[in-house]
Amino acid sequence: MSVLEIEEKSLEEAIRVACERLKLPRELLEIEIISKGSSGIFGIVGAKKAKIRVRPKVPSFEHAAERAKEVLSYILEYVNLPTVVEAEARDDHVYLNIVSNGSGLLIGKKGQTLTALQYLVSRIISKELGRNIPVVVDAENYRARREKSLQDLARQLSAKVKRLKKPIATGPMNAQDRRIIHLALKDEPAVKTKSKGEGNMRRVVIYPVRAGGGSSRNNSRNSNR
Amino acid sequence: MKELKKLVEVIARALAEHPDKVDVREIEGQNTCVIELRAAKEDLGKIIGREGRNAHAIRTILNAAATKLRKRAVLEIIE
């Protein structure tokens, strides 16, 4: 979190500079006065500068949601599509929903455009508020639909693994998608899941668990993550 | 094509510490539009991001916007 020390002629001036530098309204700053400053005699002799220490107040998610909505709307203004952004502060993240009639374009292949917007908005407001703010950008319920189709995929693959008694890998996936697969098969005793590969090529491998098979069973307990 | 230029400019300015030093130009071709981005030296890293993640995200959004205009767009970040 960024802390600033500012020295100016007067207290008001220092606070104004602080707001400007941190791009935040006064209410969202935590201001600590180090010296009040005085103009001295006739403003010449013994003039002392005012000094303050400021840091952004821990912002509420409501405020973050509001800012995130503004940032996203501002970016979308230049995508040449009429859009409306809805914002909602949820327990641990800010949820933004884009309403438009050209959402396919904004979602992109496998949601990559949504993910790009989400990443940038999160970076921009985290920088602004001096704290990491997780943001989820959605359009037409894409995230929920994606989660459902990944769960279906997980179930299909696990059925195949059980039938063939051989491990099967999914395609390359990002962390959120892999998490959905792991969670979907968490309560399936007949298979276990593991992530394999590096960086962008990381994927989930689903292994069969042999009932009563000594060693493989122990493994499944220890290396489930 | 004003939008594409502005789009990159808006995002880059939001990421930079010195937004006033962000300079975006566009070179328009028949089908392709090249967007050139210049910024303060210490801001280039901020705009590109760790492992180029910011730059990658900007390009993804730029491509979506360009598709709408039936164009191709290329983002060049110039040192």
Automatic annotation (TrEMBL), chain A:
One GO CC term, this protein: cytoplasm
Keyword Cell wall biogenesis/degradation: yes
InterPro entries listed in its UniProt record: Jag_KH (IPR038008), Jag_N_dom_sf (IPR038247), KH_dom-like_a/b (IPR015946), KhpB (IPR039247), KhpB_N (IPR032782), R3H_dom (IPR001374), R3H_dom_sf (IPR036867), R3H_KhpB (IPR034079)
GO biological process, one term: peptidoglycan biosynthetic process
GO molecular-function terms, A-Z: RNA binding
Region (Jag_N domain): 5-55
Primary localization class, coarse: cytoplasm
Pfam families referenced in this protein's UniProt entry, alphabetically: Jag_N (PF14804), KH_KhpA-B (PF13083), R3H (PF01424)
Record key words, sorted: Cell shape, Cell wall biogenesis/degradation, Chaperone, Cytoplasm, RNA-binding
Localization annotation: Cytoplasm
KW Disulfide bond (keyword) present: no
Domain named R3H: residues: 144-210
Family label: Belongs to the KhpB RNA-binding protein family.
Domain comment (free text): Has an N-terminal Jag-N domain and 2 RNA-binding domains (KH and R3H).
Function: A probable RNA chaperone. Forms a complex with KhpA which binds to cellular RNA and controls its expression. Plays a role in peptidoglycan (PG) homeostasis and cell length regulation.
UniProt subunit comment: Forms a complex with KhpA.
Name of this protein: RNA-binding protein KhpB
TrEMBL record, chain B:
Protein function: A probable RNA chaperone. Forms a complex with KhpB which binds to cellular RNA and controls its expression. Plays a role in peptidoglycan (PG) homeostasis and cell length regulation.
Subunit text: Forms a complex with KhpB.
The entry's keywords: Cell shape, Cell wall biogenesis/degradation, Chaperone, Cytoplasm, RNA-binding
Family, similarity comment: Belongs to the KhpA RNA-binding protein family.
Domain of life: Bacteria
Entry's localization field: Cytoplasm
GO BP of this protein: cell wall organization; peptidoglycan biosynthetic process; regulation of cell shape
One Pfam match: KH_KhpA-B
Annotated protein name in UniProt: RNA-binding protein KhpA
Cellular component aspect of the GO annotation: cytoplasm
GO molecular function: RNA binding
HAMAP family: KhpA
Predominant subcellular localization, coarse grouping: cytoplasm
PANTHER family: RNA-BINDING PROTEIN KHPA, UPF0109 PROTEIN SCO5592
